[in-house]
Amino acid sequence: MHAIPTSVAAPLLAALGQQLHRFFRHLDERRYDELLQLFTEDCRWLRQGQWLQGRPAVRLALEARAADMETRHVMSNGYVAACDGDRATLEAYMTAYRYPLGTVLPQAAGPLRMNLATTVFRLDPGHDWRIAEQRLVPAVAFSA
Fold first, then answer.
1. How confident is the model at residue 5, as a pLDDT?
2. In this structure, are residues 137 and 96 in contact, taking their beta carbons and an 8 Å threshold?
3. In this predicted structure, what is the pLDDT of residue 120?
4. Strand 128-141 to strand 39-47: parallel, antiparallel, or no bridges (unpaired)?
5. H helix or E strand, kind and range, residue 89
6. Per-residue model confidence (pLDDT) at position 36
7. Can you tell me the distance from the alpha carbon of 55 to that of 20, in angstroms, rounded to the nearest whole number?
8. Which residues of 69-93 are buried (b: 16+ CB within 10 A; e: fewer)?
9. Strand order in the sheet with 87-100
10. In angstroms, what is the C-alpha Rg of the chain?
11. Are 132 and 121 spatial neighbours (Cβ–Cβ below 8 Å)?
12. 80 partner at 20 to 30 Å CA-CA among 6, 10, 53, 122?
């Protein structure tokens, strides 16, 4: 693997990072219609050890999320790992926090887990960068 020049990586990091932050914000706030628009039609998502194929499968998984819990996702250490024309890969760490719904100031004993998030974006004409594939793979499990 060769390093991507900073002059190429820096603007891509800003654009792809924006999309990834937008993705996790929509997920945290359960804005699934907006989240689904960030995916390509033929997307693949490795979520909780299961591959989801296409937007309908992603929607079903999202709608099955526990209604009595909230989750917040924090992204860090993002960098552009690959770029080839209309495809680019962003790698980052995602740390998830989960707590019961409805508390004024949520209390969490600590993070739930930290995942390596590898996200392959495809430039869709007229739609900006969209997520073609995302793999969330546990990197650290935290004990309670």
1. 86
2. no
3. 98
4. parallel
5. strand 87-100
6. 98
7. 17
8. ebbbbebeebebbebeeeebbbebe
9. 50-53, 39-47, 128-141, 113-124, 87-100, 69-84
10. 16
11. yes
12. 53
The Cα angle at residue 86 between residues 91 and 120, in degrees rounded to 5: 25
User: Residue 119 burial (CB < 10 Å; 0-12/13-18/19+)?
Assistant: buried
Q: Which amino acid, one-letter code, is at 76?
A: S
Q: State residue 100's pLDDT score.
A: 87
Backbone angles phi, psi at 25, to 5 degrees: -65, -45
Q: How far apart are CA 74 and CA 21, in angstroms?
A: 9
For residue 5, the 8-state DSSP code is: P
Tokens, residue 46: 């490795």
Tokens (6 digits) for 93: 């760490």
